[in-house]
Amino acid sequence: MFTPHLPAGYHISKLLPIIDDRKKVINYLIDNGIPQPKSKNDKGFKDRLLCDRWWRRTLDKLQSRLDESKLIELGRVAKHKEKYSSNLTVYRVGKKAIKAYEYIQNQSMISDAGDIVDMATIVQSSIANPTNRRAELMIRMAGFEAYAQQHGYVGEFYTLTCPSRYHRFSGVKLNDKYQELTPKDAQQYLVKQWSKIRAAYGRLDIKPFGFRVSEPHGDGCPHWHMLLFVKADKRNALREIFSQYALEVDGHEPGADKHRFKCVEIDSEAGTATGYIAKYISKNLGFSIDDPEHDTNELSRSYGQRVKAWASVWGIRQFQQIGGAPVTVWRQLRKLRDSLDDELLEAARQAADESRWADYLEIMGGVDAKRIEQTITLVKKHLVDKETGEIKQNAYFEYITMIFGVASIAAEAITRTKSWAMVSTKLATSMLSKSAAYGGSFSSRSPVNNCTGQLLAL
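and the corresponding structure tokens:
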């Protein structure tokens, strides 16, 4: 069990004598409620466990979750009280966001060719911006619907809810069946049941595709909304599979048959399938869903902040694509501005540039194509130091692999052509002035040292 208030140095001192005994290390982590570090190799695993910075980040996250779980147990987090997440967590997450914003305002990206772009502009134009994130999600969802209509799929809207043991409240009353399980535990339950559902429909050769949205009940317990497209003759089988595993745990408790799994058949004449899930995407990103005059309002922003805090403290992924072609390839294609000689890559580039997700799916081999069958793949390479020719490593001595572009069977299209580093805007401006004075561009060495950070190819 996680013991709060023990500093990073304490854990490091305990692990140092046993660091080469993997079994003892893992037992120590389990006994102290510490998650195992994610690493690429054994050295990276050990280096993280002896790194003060890794421990401080990990302990801070665990402390935040412990504090929030205690407030949930006390009944503070509820629809009629502190909705979705406690005021303490909302404050903490908001404070970190402000700190990150202030930091970004004073940082810039500088390339080895002398380009400077301020980080605020980069963030504003990325999917970290909720407006851009919503737009991309809606483009992909609408594209799935268009593809479904073209290929004879029907739409289904499902809702999956956790057993009573995961809910602190039942309505506005404390739930006496609650077993002190956290929203993280509830999300893991949903993920586990989902893995069983996927395996079951895979055995029957059912291949649904669509999107999943995870959002909180008032007491913080997550539930899932899913918009899926499936062949009409597979619809009933898919429903039966979902119902079976939704009721697998405590399926006989009162209300389980009514609330655990809900299914709505999408009627295309009554409205678009995308419209069913659009409101969940919008409201979970802080946008208004019932105010036609304003994209956001005070109520929607408050909802968005509290849900953001909930997802942040519990590490819950709010939106997930199910099936279809990878969005990372799509995003790389959108970076390409010039026409390509390879016909397949050019067709995909145009589809991505014009936000035609359905056409992109067709070009990639369709929604049923396995990863190995997809027509376009990512180009991934180790990051190489241009001065020494050595493969670059991260702080834990693991080789850095990055995306450099996309490729068909016949050609590559490179999206990373320059090396960049993040430095303070003041330093970037000074370096640009000095470079201009000498009439040249930066060397690949110039923006990088132990203080300014690692040079990255973009």
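(Above: one complete record from the training split.) Residues 130-322 form one domain.
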